[in-house]
Amino acid sequence: MIGPPGELRSGELPVTMLPGQSDERRMSPSATNLRAVGEPRDGADHRSQPARPAIRISNLQKTFGKLVAVDRVSVDIEPGEFFMIVGPSGCGKTTLLRILAGLETATAGMIEIDTPANSAQPENSMVFQGESIFPWMTVWNNAAYGLRMRNAAPAIIKERVGHYLDATGLTRFADYYPHQLSGGMKQRVSIARAFANDPEILLMDEPFSALDAQNKLLLQEELLRIWDEQKKTVVFITHSVDEAVYLGDRIMVMTAQPGRVKSFVRVPLPRPRNIIELQKAPEFGELVHRIWSGLRDEVQRAREQENKEAAHENKEQSS
């Protein structure tokens, strides 16, 4: 969470204010080389500037030794946008999301996140691919965890947790422990916790990938319904092209390693969306086909890379 204006935590870089503004809003120091969103770049026209994106990623790169995981990724994500990232295994999707969450640092490039100064809201909440709720806490206490860590008033905790447990169909399971829940119900707890914490940005790393088709469909519909209440900015990673089209406003398609931007695809389908009805629409099928046609070669290339790496490892082990 950001400290008072002008106060920097250890290891943070200075934050540049928007031209002509006080520190009414400031940028989150999530990565190196920060600049305020909306501040003119060198050589840009200063007379007319577009509205500030919620997230600006500029020439982001992440390396692990000689391995380039993310390579020169640039994108602006608008406030309230449901932004999807799809790509083959190993293309750096999760690494990119972890950098946004502050769990990894970028090797080069810049991330700018537009957040209010002195806001009581956390910058982001993350819903992970695997189970991430605390096994020793009840459903209620898991959902309330973020709010309690921020010392929210008991009345606020009661209202928000109650609201999102109700929205996810978990009210009658409030006193249950995770070992008493199904996989789908555990992910509902994670979603309730993320929304109850009222973050500026919601980060989701394949949260439904381990679920069966029925639970996946139900949770996709619940997520859209809950998101529609407040229109949080969402960055959602998936391997599923269908899921990307169901949920997203815009989709970033990534290449095989090293992960680069292959294309951006706008999803013009109207909201609110009924996923079952959407499957019947010709526009849905055309979008899925268009995205998969561009993604197929990258998936094949990723498989070839995996096979080469496996063959190299086997050769080293046998020598």
Textual characterization of the structure:
By secondary structure, this protein is an alpha/beta fold. It has a domain at 131-199. Helix content is 36%, strand content 20%. The protein has helices at 93-101, 139-149, 154-167, 183-196, 213-230, 241-247, 275-278, 282-318, and strands spanning 25-28, 55-64, 67-77, 82-86, 108-116, 124-127, 201-205, 233-238, 250-254, 261-266. A 6-stranded mixed sheet has the order 6-7-8-4-9-10, sandwiched between helices. It is globular and about 60 Å long. The N and C termini lie far apart (51 Å). The model is unreliable at 1-48 (pLDDT under 50).
What's the total number of strands? Answer: 10
Low-pLDDT regions: 1-48
Instruction: Output the strand order for the largest sheet.
Output: 6-7-8-4-9-10
Alpha-beta classification: alpha/beta
N/C terminus separation: 51 Å
Number of helical runs?
8
How would you sum up the global shape?
globular
Beta content: 15-25%
Mind telling me the C-alpha Rg? 21 Å
What about the largest sheet? 6 strands, mixed
Indicate the mean pLDDT.
83
Give the helix level as a range of percent: 25-40%
> What is the chain-wise order of helices and strands?
EEEEHEEHHHEHEHEEHH
